[in-house]
């Protein structure tokens, strides 16, 4: 049996049921594939480390990323404003540490930190972070272990506004655009429901507190991620619709698919006919 996990956030890794499901599948001698599909590409290197931590290194799994899946697809050239073009060789370099990892900080003549590069234990570049005059992050360039730039995370006032996924030739293949959206959410849950009430709605009131069926309603501010594919110029109005493309790419027709419970309700609208297990 093969089990495919769609990993959409670092928080999902820390859920007790995530490691529990991995352990149970390991005991069944299942082949486990974890697809890191969040669009904050700087989280990818953290994900592998976090999975090994929560499973105590006792689970065998294959970690694959969107870059692994789509690296050979043809894309389009980056726009001039898609990438911060800063010649780091013109800046003063200071070596140090970020946590337990080697880091290099690049400082201009005025003493402003313009960029910081982080390296893994083998000395390979993980990412380079670029800062504005107020030391706010404006961009993170993410690299594969063999030194290819594969992801660009763009920030405005420390908010991730856009992520660009590149192919092995440095061409743009997916653009993820994030925006805040206020949405009215309604949940009707029974006392025996297996779906937990979202924490954002715990303070919402119900008309009848003693009723076995309770209605919850609240206005939630959610991040909406839209996706543009430059492989076939298809648009996805939200990230949940994009997940179906990923599942098709990794050929999950005969495999067991696992998804974060927080994503499954919205994603189920676009995954008709697919049996999804939650963690």
List the main descriptive attributes of the protein structure presented here.
279 residues, alpha+beta, 10-stranded antiparallel beta sheet
Descriptive overview:
- It is built from six helices and 15 strands.
- With 279 residues, the protein is of the alpha+beta class.
- The longest helix has 12 residues, at 16-27.
- The chain is globular, with a radius of gyration of 21 Å.
- The mean pLDDT is 88.
Ordered list of secondary-structure elements with their pairings:
Blueprint: E1 2-7, H1 10-13, H2 16-27, E2 31-36, H3 44-54, E3 62-65, H4 66-70, E4 92-98, E5 101-107, E6 113-119, E7 125-131, E8 137-143, E9 149-156, E10 159-166, E11 172-190, E12 213-229, E13 235-236, H5 239-249, E14 256-259, H6 261-267, E15 276-278
Parallel strand pairs: 1-2, 1-14, 2-3, 14-15
Antiparallel strand pairs: 4-5, 5-6, 6-7, 7-8, 8-9, 9-10, 10-11, 11-12, 12-13
Distance between termini? 18 Å
Pick out the low-confidence regions: none
The succession of helices and strands, N to C, reads EHHEHEHEEEEEEEEEEHEHE
Q: What average pLDDT do the residues reach?
A: 88
Structural category is: alpha+beta
Give the total of beta strands. 15
Shape: globular
Major sheet details:
10 strands, antiparallel
Strand order of the largest sheet: 4-5-6-7-8-9-10-11-12-13
Radius of gyration: 21 Å
The count of helical stretches stands at 6
Instruction: Tell me what portion of residues adopts beta-strand conformation.
Output: 35-45%
| Helix content estimate | 10-25%
């Amino acid at each position: 049996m093969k089990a495919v996990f769609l990993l959409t956030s670092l928080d999902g890794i820390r859920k007790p049921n995530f490691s529990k499901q991995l352990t149970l599948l390991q005991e069944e001698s299942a082949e486990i594939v974890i697809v890191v599909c969040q669009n904050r590409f700087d989280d990818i290197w953290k994900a592998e480390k976090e999975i090994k931590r929560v499973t105590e290194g006792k689970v065998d799994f294959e970690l694959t990323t969107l870059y692994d899946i789509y690296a050979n697809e043809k894309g389009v050239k980056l726009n001039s404003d898609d990438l911060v073009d800063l010649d780091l060789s013109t800046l003063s370099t200071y070596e140090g540490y970020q946590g337990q990892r080697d880091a290099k900080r690049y400082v201009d003549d005025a003493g402003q930190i313009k960029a910081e590069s982080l390296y893994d234990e083998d000395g390979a570049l993980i990412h380079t972070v670029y800062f504005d005059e107020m030391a706010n992050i404006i961009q993170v360039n993410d690299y594969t272990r063999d030194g290819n730039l594969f992801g660009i995370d763009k920030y405005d006032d420390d908010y991730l506004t856009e992520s660009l996924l590149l192919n092995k030739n440095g061409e743009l293949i997916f653009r993820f655009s994030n925006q805040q959206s206020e949405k009215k959410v309604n949940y009707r849950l029974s006392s025996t429901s297996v779906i937990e009430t979202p924490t954002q709605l715990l303070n919402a009131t119900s008309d009848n507190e003693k009723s076995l069926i309770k209605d919850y309603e609240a206005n939630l501010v959610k991040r909406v991620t839209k996706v543009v594919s430059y492989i076939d110029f298809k648009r996805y109005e939200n990230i949940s619709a994009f997940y179906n493309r990923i599942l098709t790419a990794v050929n999950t027709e005969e495999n067991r698919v696992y998804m974060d419970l927080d994503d499954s309700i919205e994603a189920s609208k676009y995954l008709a006919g697919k049996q999804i297990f939650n963690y």
